[in-house]
């Protein structure tokens, strides 16, 4: 420390750090660098004159590179564009993750068919009901359509009967006999009965269903729309039971056929268009169907045998119909039940996935918002909140000098206070640096807390100096934004419109309040604050020392200017004569006294002021000043205790007092989230509701069956292929069961037919010949002749379709090829696009369909095979079964499914019509079998058409829903991506901005230590490190006091900003870290944050650090410590080399920057020293990264006693860089009274 410390001041209103004197304005900012970084002389002078910096300056700092920063932020994010949708949203993005499957298992019961919590189940059902409100109406309309088709079928059968079996006398006897036999086996139905009873019943069902459904969804009295599901289920249940009962009672022998058609069509409609929990309600209806079917048969059979006899044609026909219709009924219900289960579980998984996504999204947003708020609060602890808000509006980027000007203001009536510890130099020399840092933290903690109480804004701390103001950020503010259109004379002549604000403690501001009133208010408040911190300083425990530090305070009131200075470690600064005068009052004051000017006395005359003799103030001349000793106000108030002081600081929050930073816990469990409030339930109901139709139309074409963007279509198909991967395997397995069950059906059918055809009664023989063909009796007798031994050919003859060993091998081969190729596509990386699996399954199903139809056709046209009279009946179940498997277990898109139906229809009519036309000649021969065949063919064709309509519409509805869900997930992920991108961009910008104020390592510690939103003062005290081998530079602008007195403050501010912009850019080039700027003083280090760092985190180690460093410099270390000493010396050499090159660049560059108006170059005076120091954060408001130690004071002394336009260095620096052209300069005293030789280096 030097005796010159007493002369320390701030020419631009910024105090100097410990151990350096003020001369000509403070320690100087040195400028330097290669010519490539610097503007050339005249042009630069002209730019400074016009207050407009060159574009070069605006590109040297991250804040001045808004476009680059924003572009890099966008590039680093995953922001979605149309071309990225395949990469981001296909594949795993739409697939079930193990975590989702585990959560689903934990949240559901009954094999995934019900959520454990009733509240969750209600939300799911409500969302499902809203989603399917239009689909249900389509289902009711389809039921009525089926009734119309039933009427059409009856009408066609009646027409056919009227044409071929008219009730007229002139028909041939053979034709009459054929018609009578056909009539005895098949009733063509009563057309009048259909029109009178069936059609109105279906119409009533449709009207009641649609009316109740619309009422529930439109009525505001019904809040839970899940009631629509119950209404739909009840209507289907009641109508189905009534229809089954009417069919059984009105159709004695044909009711199994009609029951089969009604059940299959009705259940299929319900499956796709009911909008209910599919599996549970579908199971109930299926059980109802099977119970009624199997209970009705014995009752009906008893009735028929009682009425017609056991051997009657009616009894045989009923038995045969029941046997044949049971298989397709059971097969259809089984296939649809399995599909309903898979569909139900899939819907519930999708719902839960949506809930998880919403919770994750909210959690991410909350975490991002929390981080953003934490960082913003940290920023607001270093900059005024108004400045932070303006920077936030500009994305923390300054793109023009107008924006820099917008961050600057002129203030009037501002009261500024400088408080400093007298004797701090001697005190810090006796006390270890960690204890000094701890003492300063305790002291400034008291000061910071009193700022809140007295509505005072802490401007900054510099070592032991504390600067505060009232009237800039707090108090009564009379401020004006800087205008580039007015000259200084114009500003003085014009009526300034002040933006008047005040805090809640200041009372309401009147629009006509005078400058005098604001100045008086701010001055009185500052004096009260000064007295409070004077009393508070007495409460802080001072480490034992022969010279305890004592507080002295200087105050002055007047105008000033505020703004942001620098680009690295930027600071909110106050400039102007008021700052300089307040600093001089502090420097020339006395311990335990408040020293002030006559202007302050005029504004606050009520204190016990002591008039002093006039003193000569540097830059001001003779001034009348006054003292307010501590004894005059010692008893005015109680001394506050450190433990009692508490203020709203986000770094010192306790008990969750900062509510803005207390985000509600993100609901990790969807159950708890859904059960919270009705508003939450309505929000989560959206998880079950896809996007709106209007939104969906904007993204799709071709009736919603394709996305407009080809990339989106590929992404959808790829995701759908992954989602149905397991379902496809299930479909192939079910196909094998269908083939095997076909053989079982053949055996059961054979047993029935054999029992009929081997009966010796005339009725049984005629029935067997008519129903199964002329050779049926002979085949039955032939089997009896073989002792009842069945052959494979006997079984397939009575199966649904004849599977020869060759055809069975082909079908099983295709069915085995399908899973293999499916597995290959999904598991091999060589197939990038998984939607080829959908094409593969479509090809396999189509090939199997072709094979089956070829087999069925060949079985009809081969001479050795005899056709049954009802052979068309088997074609319907075969076609419908494969259509069901394809629609429920393949995931193929609607276009391919429709193409499959087109192929199936072409095959059906292409193979069946030639057979029908070929057999038409039999009608002329009086064959009654043809009449039965045509009857079955018409009914089968109508059934195939109806099922085709139902399944195609069902597939369309399913695909639209699936595509909507895909689009919903894309939109949610896109929205989430956008939110995260925006939050991350803001967080990143704020983080980078924060790292420009304090070292990045401390930023991480501050942020990581606030996970519970509370950081104790103890933690702040522990953020200290001892640094060995670091090198520090002080640079001061020569003649700054005179210059600042002659030039407008804004031009001074502009000049300093331009100069510091260049210095800051040179920091990166030379690996230097800008520590701070104090007025015109620029302080930088190497080895503290950048360079070769040797850090000690233990405070105990710091006491011996300086002796260790000195021993290394003097080469007095022992042999055992030689290795570590060599490392320290090497690190020190590297650090000094980097900082010396930085100093040279500053000196060279400063010569080319011209001061505005005076038109003289900016000459720097630079001092450098190497040694040890202690670093840490001081204060709790306006956090300050501070370094302390004797070597810091020596570096400041090097600058203070240096020579303009040269570098003044200590002997430690010269010792480590002996090749430089050093010139001995002078001897100076260290704090331990030892002399030290210093050196000059010309640049």
From TrEMBL:
A single GO molecular function term of this UniProt record: peptide receptor activity
Gene3D superfamilies: Nucleotide cyclase
GO CC term (a single one): plasma membrane
GO biological process: intracellular signal transduction; receptor guanylyl cyclase signaling pathway
Segments of skewed composition (Basic and acidic residues): 1-11
SMART domains for the chain: CYCc
Pfam families in UniProt: Guanylate_cyc
Compartment(s) of residence: Membrane
Membrane-crossing segments per the record: 134-152, 191-215, 227-246, 282-301, 732-752, 806-825, 837-860, 872-889, 896-917, 937-956
UniProt keyword terms in alphabetical order: Lyase, Membrane, Nucleotide-binding, Transmembrane, Transmembrane helix
Main location: membrane
Transmembrane helix among keywords: yes
UniProt keyword Transmembrane helix, yes or no: yes
Region named Disordered: 1-26
This protein's name: Guanylate cyclase
């Amino acid at each position: 420390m030097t005796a010159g410390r007493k002369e320390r001041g701030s020419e631009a209103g910024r105090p100097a750090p410990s151990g350096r004197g003020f001369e000509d304005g403070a320690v100087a900012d040195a400028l330097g660098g290669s010519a490539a970084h610097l503007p050339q002389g005249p042009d630069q002078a002209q730019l400074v004159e016009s207050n407009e910096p060159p574009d070069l300056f605006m590109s040297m700092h991250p804040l001045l590179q808004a476009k680059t920063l924003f572009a890099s932020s966008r590039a680093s994010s995953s922001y979605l564009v149309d071309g990225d949708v395949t990469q981001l949203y296909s594949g795993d993005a739409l697939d079930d993750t193990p975590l989702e499957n585990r959560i689903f298992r934990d949240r559901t019961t009954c094999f995934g068919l019900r959520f454990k919590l009733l509240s969750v189940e209600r939300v799911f059902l409500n969302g499902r009901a809203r989603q399917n409100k239009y689909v249900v109406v389509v289902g009711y309309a389809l039921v009525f359509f089926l009734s119309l088709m039933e009427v059409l079928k009856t009408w066609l059968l009646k027409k056919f009967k009227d044409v071929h079996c008219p009730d007229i006398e002139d028909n041939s006897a053979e034709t009459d006999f054929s018609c009578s036999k056909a009539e005895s086996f098949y009733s063509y139905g009563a057309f009048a009965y259909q029109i009178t009873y069936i059609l109105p019943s279906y119409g009533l069902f449709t009207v009641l269903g649609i009316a109740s459904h619309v009422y529930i969804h439109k009525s505001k009295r019904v809040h839970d729309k899940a009631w629509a599901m119950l209404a739909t289920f009840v209507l289907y249940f009641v109508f189905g039971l009534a229809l089954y009962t009417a069919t059984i009672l009105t159709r004695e022998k044909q009711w199994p056929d009609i029951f089969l058609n009604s059940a299959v069509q009705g259940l299929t409609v319900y499956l796709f268009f009911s909008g209910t929990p599919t599996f549970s309600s579908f199971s109930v209806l299926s059980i109802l169907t099977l119970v009624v079917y199997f209970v009705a048969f014995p009752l009906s059979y008893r009735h028929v045998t009682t009425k017609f006899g056991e051997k009657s044609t009616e009894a045989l026909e009923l038995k045969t119909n029941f046997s044949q219709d049971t298989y397709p009924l059971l097969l259809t219900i089984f296939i649809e039940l399995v599909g309903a289960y898979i569909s139900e579980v899939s819907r519930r998984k999708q719902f839960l996935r949506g809930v998880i996504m919403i919770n994750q999204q909210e959690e991410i947003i909350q975490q991002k918002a929390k981080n953003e708020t934490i960082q913003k609060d940290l920023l607001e602890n270093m900059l005024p909140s108004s400045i932070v808000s303006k920077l936030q509006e500009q994305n923390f980027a300054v793109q023009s000098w107008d924006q820099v000007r917008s961050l600057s203001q002129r203030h009037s009536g501002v009261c500024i206070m400088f408080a400093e510890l007298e004797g701090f130099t001697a005190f810090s020399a006796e006390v270890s640096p960690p204890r000094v840092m701890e003492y300063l933290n305790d002291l400034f903690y008291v000061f910071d807390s009193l700022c809140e109480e007295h509505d005072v804004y802490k401007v900054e701390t510099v070592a032991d100096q504390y600067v505060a103001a009232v009237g800039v950020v707090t108090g009564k503010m009379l401020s004006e934004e800087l205008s580039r259109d007015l000259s200084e004379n114009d500003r003085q002549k014009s009526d300034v419109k002040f933006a008047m604000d005040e805090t809640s403690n200041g009372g309401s501001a009147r629009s006509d309040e005078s400058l005098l009133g604001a100045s008086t208010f701010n001055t009185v408040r500052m004096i009260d604050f000064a007295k409070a911190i004077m009393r508070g300083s007495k409460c802080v425990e001072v480490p034992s020392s022969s010279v305890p530090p004592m507080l002295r305070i200087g105050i002055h009131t007047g105008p000033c200017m505020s703004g942001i200075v620098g680009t690295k470690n930027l600071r909110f600064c106050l400039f102007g004569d008021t700052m300089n005068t307040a600093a001089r009052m502090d420097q020339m004051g006395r311990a335990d006294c408040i020293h002030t000017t006559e202007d302050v006395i005029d504004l606050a005359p009520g204190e016990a002021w002591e008039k002093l003799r006039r003193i000569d103030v540097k830059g001001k001349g003779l001034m009348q000043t006054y003292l307010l000793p501590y004894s005059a106000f010692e008893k005015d108030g109680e001394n506050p205790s450190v433990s009692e002081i508490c203020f709203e600081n986000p770094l010192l929050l306790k008990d969750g007092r900062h509510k803005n930073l207390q985000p509600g816990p993100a609901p990790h469990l969807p159950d708890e989230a859904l059960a919270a409030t009705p508003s939450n339930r309505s929000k989560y109901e959206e998880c079950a509701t896809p996007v709106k139709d209007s939104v969906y139309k904007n993204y799709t074409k071709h009736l919603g069956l394709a996305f407009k963007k080809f990339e989106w279509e590929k992404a959808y198909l790829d995701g759908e292929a992954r989602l149905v991967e397991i379902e496809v395997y299930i479909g192939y397995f079910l196909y094998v069961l269908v083939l095997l069950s076909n053989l079982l059906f053949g055996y059961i059918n054979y047993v029935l037919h054999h029992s009929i055809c081997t009966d010796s009664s005339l009725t049984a023989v005629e029935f067997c010949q008519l129903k199964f063909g002329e050779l049926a009796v002979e085949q039955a007798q032939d089997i009896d002749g073989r002792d009842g031994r069945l052959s494979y050919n006997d079984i397939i003859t009575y199966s649904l379709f004849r599977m020869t060993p060759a055809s069975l091998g082909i079908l099983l081969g295709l069915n085995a090829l399908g899973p293999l190729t499916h597995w290959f596509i999904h598991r091999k990386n060589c197939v990038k696009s998984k939607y080829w699996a959908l094409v593969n399954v479509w090809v396999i199903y189509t090939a199997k369909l072709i094979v089956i139809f070829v087999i069925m056709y060949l079985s009809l046209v081969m001479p050795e095979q005899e056709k049954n009279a009802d052979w068309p009946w088997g074609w319907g179940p075969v076609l419908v079964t494969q259509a069901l498997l394809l629609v429920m277990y393949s995931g193929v898109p609607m276009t391919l499914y429709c193409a499959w139906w087109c192929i199936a229809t072409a095959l059906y009519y292409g193979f069946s019509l030639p057979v029908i036309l070929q057999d038409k000649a039999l009608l002329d021969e009086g064959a009654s079998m043809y009449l039965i065949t045509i009857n079955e063919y018409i009914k089968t064709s109508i059934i195939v058409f109806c099922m085709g309509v139902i399944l195609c519409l069902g597939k369309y509805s399913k695909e639209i829903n699936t595509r909507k869900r895909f689009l919903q997930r894309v939109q949610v992920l896109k929205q989430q991506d956008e939110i995260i991108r925006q939050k991350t961009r803001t967080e990143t910008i704020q983080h980078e901005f924060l790292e420009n104020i304090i070292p990045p390592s401390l930023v991480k510690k501050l942020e990581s230590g606030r996970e519970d939103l509370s950081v104790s003062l103890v933690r702040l005290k522990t953020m200290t490190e001892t640094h060995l081998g670091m090198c520090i530079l002080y640079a001061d602008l020569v003649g700054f006091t005179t210059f600042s007195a002659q030039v407008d403050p804004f031009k001074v501010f502009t000049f300093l900003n331009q100069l510091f912009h260049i210095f800051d850019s040179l920091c990166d080039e030379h690996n230097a870290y800008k520590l701070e700027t104090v007025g015109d003083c620029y302080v930088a280090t190497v080895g503290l944050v950048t360079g070769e760092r040797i850090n000690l985190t233990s405070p105990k180690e710091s006491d011996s650090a300086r002796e260790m460093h000195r021993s290394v410099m003097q080469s007095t270390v022992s042999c055992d410590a030689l290795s570590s000493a060599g490392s320290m010396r090497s690190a020190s050499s590297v650090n000094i080399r980097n900082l010396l090159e930085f100093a040279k660049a500053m000196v060279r560059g400063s010569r080319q920057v011209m001061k505005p108006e005076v038109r003289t170059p900016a000459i720097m005076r630079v001092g450098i020293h190497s040694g040890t120091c202690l670093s840490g954060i001081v204060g709790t408001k306006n956090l300050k990264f501070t370094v302390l130690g004797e070597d810091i004071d020596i570096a400041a002394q090097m600058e203070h006693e240096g020579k303009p336009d040269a570098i003044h260095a200590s002997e430690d620096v010269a010792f480590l860089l002996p090749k430089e052209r050093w010139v001995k300069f002078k001897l100076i005293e260290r704090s331990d009274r030892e002399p030290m030789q210093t050196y000059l280096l010309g640049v």
